[in-house]
Every structure is written in structure tokens, then in C-alpha cells.
Amino acid sequence: MLTKKIEKALNDQIVLEAYASNSYLAMASWCEGKGLRGATKFYYAQSDEERVHMLKLVKYVNASGGSANITAVKSPESSYKTLQETFEAALKQEKAVSQSINQLVELTFNDKDYTTHNFLQWYVQEQHEEEALFRSILDLFALADKDGKSLIIIDNEIMKIRNEVEAG
Ligand code: FEO
Which domains are present in the chain? Predict the structure, then answer.
């Protein structure tokens, strides 16, 4: 059984994950409009993953005697100057999500809710992997020249990275 405080914190996390999903959907759409096939595939898949993160929380809250609230989500940023800028925004977003998860973990520990504490370990690991993923893509930009040819190469690399994630 969830305390009201933890139920609220989990509901706040549901909103964050929904926002992350919409945000990646907006980035996918922006990339699709630019003909960036690798980044488009990457961000559509990332949006789906964030929806899964949200759903896991919804189901956990409902299965634990609480009520998951599905609310409006603020509009994500939908215009960017460059592909690199999307990945910088993505890493910033992931860091914010990680911070929120860490606060949740601390809350469950302090409240001795070890079941939710245990449930959240999956998110701790996931955030670690996602931050590393976005950092590795930003490293590509640091390596590349700023001309159009490099952008195509980077986009192909992003496609490969996405395929590797899917292959596990
Ligand atoms: Fe589910 Fe990447 O935050």
C-alpha cells in the first residue's frame, strides 16, 4: 500500500515520463522533416521507450492500492536549429529525469517503502544507460566537422547505435 506522499511522487514521475515521450516524438518529427533517417528512427523509438516507462509506473501505482492520474502534459519544444541541439536538449532532459528518480528513491528509503524502492531500481539502471547513450551520440558531434557530409555520417552512426540498442 502506497502512502499518499509516495503515490503523489509516483504520479509526478508519470507526468515526467509522458513529457519525455512527447518531447522525443517532437524531436522525431523535426528530424523527419529534415530527412535525417537515423535520428528519426532513434527518436521515434526513444519516444516509445518513454511511454513504456510511463506505463510501468501507471500499472505499479494501480497495483499497489493507489490511483494513477493521467493528466495533461505541457507542449514540448518542437523547433531546433541543429541536430546536435536536439541531443543536447535530450541529455539535459535525461539528467532531470535521473534527478527526479533519485529523489523518489530517497523518499521511498526514508519512508521504509522497500517494495517501491526495489521497483525503482529498474529506473535507476535505465537512466544510467540512457545518459550514457546520449553522451556517446554527443561525442560524435565533437568528433565531426560541421559540414553537411559529416551530418550524414553522424545520422548513419545514430541509425547504427539505435539498431545496436534494439539488438541488445
Ligand atoms: Fe524515462 Fe529517459 O526517462
Answer: 4-167 (1.20.1260.10)
